[in-house]
Input
Amino acid sequence: MLEYVSIVLLFTAVIMLSLSLFLLRKSLRIYKGVKALLEPHVKSVKKPRKRYVVFVALCEDKVYLNNVEEAVKKAFIEYYGKSMYHKASPQLILYDENSGRGVIRVLHTCTDHLLATLGLVKKINDKNCLLLPLRTTGTLKKAREYLEKLRI
Amino acid sequence: MDTYVKTCNEHLLKIARTMGYRVLVCEEIEGALLGKNSSLTPMLIKKVIIEAKNVSELRKTLAGINHKQQFITVHPFDKEAARWASHDGRVDSILLTTENINLFDKKQQNVMKYYSKPLEITLRTLISDNLDLRGVIYRRMRSYVSRKAPLIVSSMANKWYELYPPLSIVKFLLTQYDVPEKIGLQAITHVPWFIVSRKEVK
Output
């Protein structure tokens, strides 16, 4: 008789254990759901980074920093609009008038737009010109190093 | 590689070399440059553009052209001529311009895809001021790209400053016409090279 009772008790213990495990899993899922609901929804915003595009201006005559900046701005706005220009905010930060080499800083998400724009510039200050992108770097230091390498 | 340059001269070749071009396909080549394919200048190939108003005219013109040494492009103005050019082995590419854009319908795209005949578009057409036209070109380009039909992009440069840097072409196609970078790159390298490699050019 005692044997029967022990077997029945064993079975009930096993059933209770599996039931408790099932309930634990379910409660965990509910807990996660409630936690996600209570947390404030904030999209992960990536830190805006910069890219430095090294380029060379092949012109018939000498062109100056302001002229190059103005031509790039005009072409960028013509093809991508003012809103994209404000986002990208391309700035000519280095320019050597004698060699025609320079560096433009731009937002990392708009590098492609700037590279396309450089090819579309055909006239700077009424002089026939070509802007040739050479390299894109992540830091100004590397861009400067590349410019110095080109000088040698 | 630029598959459509109007006039090739010494200065243009020098600039093209600086920009990284290895092969130029020119409509007019200055006499002194013809036999001058050194390692310092890009390889030059003569381009012939046939303006086809009907099939018989196209057949006649093709019969008198040495297609093994020249890059043959057909500029069709008639649906039948466009279809016929698509399956002719002597034709290397079919030119799309603002004048014949309506010829390139779904059927024409399928024929060109079947015979793997590249569609050639010049950058002058792609950057035209007419925005409605650019919309039409965008839709045509999208359908060609989605069908994985071969595409060639050329500059149609007449002067040295009308050339485009290859990187700028790829990025321009990506940002303005949503052409994937890989296909854009193939349009100026792999697809034209496949045609040029079959030519008997020294």
User: Anything to note?
Assistant: The radius of gyration of chain B is 16 Å.
